[in-house]
Amino acid sequence: MTQGPLPAAADAAPAGLRQEPPASAGAAAPTAALRWTLLYGNFVIGCGVMVVAGSLNDLTRSLQVSVALGGQLIAIAAAVMCFGAPLLAAAVGRADRRTVLVWALAWYGVGHAACAFSPDYPALALLRGVSVLGAALFTPQAAAAIGAMTPPEQRGRAITFIFLGWSVASVIGMPVHSYIGEAFGWRYAFGLVAALAAVGCVWLARLMPRGVRPPPMSLGAWRDALTRPALVAIVGVTALQSAGQFTLFSYFAPYYKQVLGAGASGVSGLFFWFGAFGLLGNVLLARSIDRVGASRAVALQLVCISLSLLAWPWATSVGSMMLVLIPWAMGCFAANSGQQARLGLAAPALAPALMALNTSAIYLGQAAGAASGGWLLARHGFAPLHWVALGWLLVALALSLWAGRRLLRDTAAGHA
After folding, report:
1. What SS3 state is found at 385?
2. What is the pTM of this model?
3. What is d(CA 369, CA 396) in angstroms, rounded to the nearest whole number?
């Protein structure tokens, strides 16, 4: 991996925040193979998080529940991951990240295998909530681990690289889940996630070195992370933009089928199209974030998503929908990657806490978006969803711009 320039000034943090965490005792710099392994782990997590949205049509038909109720599975999982991420981060503060990450994937795989055999909706809702505890643990701890093993000047690129796994999941996982759900049933889609997780466990156990222990977070460090206005604002941006996206994203599959009249191949194709541009957006982010600055990159991504939501009423066919989806897809997964890197660059010493809080914010937003979208869908249909989503995104953009200015001001004050 080539060395990139230091982040732009807008992404700098006060001197007190830019302390570099000590290197993990006994841990070597991450190899290319390890970075690909962690990317694959995030791919598995992304596939599991998206499996409900991708197979929602068959799931609701098979379990005989409404689309709005089926969509609440997304909200349930998101709520568990929201509260689980910081609690689990505190619990594993001193643990070897190799053990943590391998067992997180194992839990995730077993949980999805159990979901595949759920006899009814209540059982699935319970098992779904339990299984995603693995996701709440894996994603932030993978980011913290790679950050602790990577030189500061390459940290932003390293973190965004392993988050490419989410984009790959959108390219492959979403359309495959959709196709499997329509052709074979939603249970096979859940079973696929379990199999992918098993592969990840073996791969990670072989390549992840022992002794990777990012600095444990004391109560004082958590308090520090929660009392810095700029950092709290950045986490808030994550929650707001995630809520906006999932107000509509959660119901893509039934929207494509019921409103656009798309068949199984059309629905799967639209998911693939969205995922392909999502991957492209994340690749471009990974290559440019250390040059343009994370704050500027995130602002551009939020603008792209907002443009798609504004143009949503003009998507009246599969062809026009493909055009409308491009800006959203380019910013969708890159926004989360950019936010994680933004926090890791602003306060490296607080990275484990901030990564956990940001992951929590992602899932808090997903829960709020899926739940509010389901409520609107049940009462008013699909029509208001994109307008509500756009409202969330515009608030997120305004807060993001404020946070960037506050970081710049804090930096100037710290140097003075």
Report:
1. helix
2. 0.73
3. 13
Task: Tell me the Cα Rg of the chain.
Answer: 20
Decide if 140 contacts 89 (C-beta within 8 A).
Answer: yes
Residue 101 and residue 204 in contact, taking contact as beta carbons nearer than 8 Å: yes
Q: Where are the alpha helices (DSSP H) in 186-293?
A: 186-207, 219-226, 229-249, 252-258, 264-292
Q: Please check whether residue 357 is in contact with residue 225, taking contact to mean a CB–CB distance below 8 angstroms.
A: yes
Specify the DSSP element, H or E, that contains 159.
Answer: helix 155-162
Going by C-beta distance under 8 Å and a sequence separation of 6 or more, which residues neighbour residue 206?
none
Q: How far apart are CA 155 and CA 348, in angstroms?
A: 9
- Helix/strand/coil percent split, the chain, to 5: 80, 0, 20
Cα dihedral 269, 271, 272, 274 sign:
positive
Kindly tell me if the per-residue pLDDT of 18 is higher than 60.
no
> What is the predicted pLDDT for the residue at 112?
96
Taking CA atoms, 316 is separated from 213, 258, 312, 329, in Å, by 51, 12, 9, 18
Residues 6+ apart with CB under 8 A from 381: none
Q: What is the DSSP letter of 173?
A: I
Question: HSE-up of 38 (CA within 13 Å, CB side)?
Answer: 28
Smallest CA-to-CA distance from 8 within 413, 414, 415, 407 is with: 407
